Amino acid sequence: GLERGAKNQFSTFSNFITTINQKKEGTGTRSPPTQLVIPNMKNVRDLPPICLDVRQKQRMSVDTLPQELKAPIPPEPSLPLRTKTVKDFQDDVEKAKSSGDWKAVHDFYSTSFDSFLEINAAFKKDANFPFNTIEDSGINAKFVNVVYDALLNTPQDVQKSVLKGIINGLLQEWKGPRTKDDLRAYCILLQNPQFSNTSTYVIYAHLLRQIAALTEADHHFLVHWSKKIAQRRFKQLVDRLLQFISLRLFPAKPEEFPPMMKCTWWIPSATKVLALFNAANSLSSPSIISYTDFYNSTLDHIDLMEEYHNWQCYGNSHRFSFCQYPFIISIAAKKVIIQRDSEQQMISIARQSLVDKVSRRQKPDMNMLFLNVKVRRTHLVSDSLDELARKRADLKKKLKVTFVGEAGLDMGGLTKEWFLLLIRQIFHPDYGMFTYHKDSHCHWFSSFKCDNYSEFRLVGALMGLAVYNSITLDIRFPPCCYKKLLSPPIVPCDHNTLVGICDLTLEDLIQVMPELAHGLSELLAYEGNVEEDFYSTFQVFQEEFGVIKSYNLKPNGDKIPVTNQNRKEYVQLYVDFLLNKSIYKQFAAFYYGFHSVCASYALLLMKMHIMCGYIVYLLCQDISLCTILFLVCLGYRYFWEVVLGFSLDLQKKLLHFATGSDRVPVGGMADLNFKISKSETSTNWLPVAHTCFNQLCLPPYKNKKELKQKLIIGISNAEGFGLE
Fold first, then answer.
1. Given 481, 626, 692, 697, which residue is catalytic?
2. Do 352 and 463 reside in the same domain of the chain?
3. What is the pTM of this model?
4. Is 692 among the residues known to form the active site?
């Protein structure tokens, strides 16, 4: 079947395997080759999950393991001597192409991939050096890349010999722990471009299964070694794993693969290996690839709520769920999970309220099903915080807002307007609760001491309401705020337990106060005498209401000088003080307020931008194509020309005017369902918007100039509901 296929195409593994010489020294009977059963191997679902499940309290994650693990290191077997260099191999390939004689190249491939020992002999930088540290894998990456780049352009028998050798290596019966040479072989085999072809997926699956089954100490090495892979090849590895998962879920040709019931371990194995690359990417600074490159959009088309409920019900058990690995789920899919989880909670709370009313023989009414907030625009903050404080028992009901003295009915638009105006006032610097850092464009908690922190609790509840009711807010919190909100992810029963405290580094401080973080980085890199030149102690000075106050970073810190030896400790204590200790009471109140509404496991899947949304840099690009034909039919062919010519500020005003929020939803403009309709009114009228339905109504303006003029007037004077 291989000879009949096109170049780089392989027959299915079940056909190909029968051509392989079935030999295995020291063993008796063996399983049929089509099964490729690995002896003494546990089912992959019995393995500890390699994921960022925060509920695994007792399990150490791959990014927190010590630099050197005290696991027994088995002796490395002596490697056969191989002297072929990159140039020798390239010369052999060129000669084969010109002469048509591929024997030398065939011999190299068949020998080099015949076993894990031979893989190390061919690609290890120094056969006599152990390379037992995480800093250096000992792999000759350049040679590996050249060999793999040439592989797909070789004849089919050469490519078959590589697959045959890989099978021989995977069929090896393992006794005792893996050696570092074994880990090197796994790292090299993962980069094989042949595994992009579906006909090799059975071999690929067994390779992934063995890697997923390695110990956590071995995973630790693989993670750090993977950090050294070049960006382009790292991306190819990730894409290959994502494609493997997608095609197993939705195969284009189901007959190419074994029945799903016989290979349920394929997807868990691939996802766990993908988690290793995600850990490597997270540990790299800067990241090798974007975190969005790990998203698998295919998962948007499966029953995510079933995955979520499996994760909720079985938690840390051996039952696999994609929710154990949130990095693979797209932000739009996570948003759907949070929305549906919130809706289910709202229905449950409303049903319970109805039952309570009926059981007390009271007449039910519709208002009991909602969290009804009535506010005056002139007293927006005080009225809102009073309403939230009085109605804490109803916070998990569906939110409905009424502005006193206005005729608007809340179908979603009033709620968005209320959040937007309220956030604008609460986060204003004059209000004193939050500080805006211009160099990072982020808000952070004010460290000023006060007698009552209840307002921070109410603001936390407000943030929780936004997430719970799927409202996008114009708030720019740094990512470390999300880390703190999940420390711990579930509110502790003991109120003496510290909350909102987590290990933060200089990288976190850069996202809040980049200028200060830069100064601390220079301190760490300073080559002179720190004590004499900086003359600093373990103290921090802060201005509070015009008075300079000092705080010791450690006991007697004012008497301890910062030196070359202790400057790392000084920087870490400084960061901890700024992001944890100095704002502890403020953030603890915010934490309890937020979790009073958002006490859901679904929150663990999300990043902070579920609340913050995106800035409208490309507002029109995403939606113009789907509306332009409709606009031409209405006679508004100039609409997008006008809007694309607007400044960013005017574009945000247009979005606010039409939707009630100037932020693009988390899933992008595709999730906005933006509508434009013709209004049968006089051209003297300004545009009208129905923010509950994201609908813009335009009178039949005669030309582009009139459309632009009336549109700017309308969006620049758009606050309040109803007509006067």
1. 692
2. yes
3. 0.68
4. yes
